[in-house]
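User: Here's a chain of 159 residues. Predict its fold as tokens.
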Amino acid sequence: IIEDFEKEPTAFCYAFAQNYQAIQYYRLDPPGSTPDDIMNRLWANLAGGLPAMFGFTVYSSIYDHDVQNTGCIPFPAATEGIEGGHAVCAVGYDDDKVITNPNNNESTTGAFLIRNSWGTGWGESGYGWLPYEYVYKGLADDWWSLLDNEWIDTGEFSV
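Assistant: Prediction complete.
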């Protein structure tokens, strides 16, 4: 719930979170990286089957009806306002994917296949596309990949 964003989690939440830990991870866009460096790391990582988590700037076109249905997030038009930020997971890419912004009819070619956290009703069963241009223009950053994790299947305990 958005209004609870700044509320401190309970001690139970902190204790429960210990059951879900990232053990080994690495950053794909360390300080000093150029957009080309980042893209080469991302392509290699994704081609190797390693997804990458990251954040990106959200613009008003993300709420367009077609974007909600297709998951094809366009590169923003100059007239669009920033709505905030969002985090997703890149799971693949398509160098030939064309995405057109409905606000200015400008298109980009090449995009990351992303898994969104907005449920399976968004995009294509929860998946969508984000143009490479977001990386080239510095609108997507903080790229991380997880090599090892640890968790407890709480379904086994009716929790």
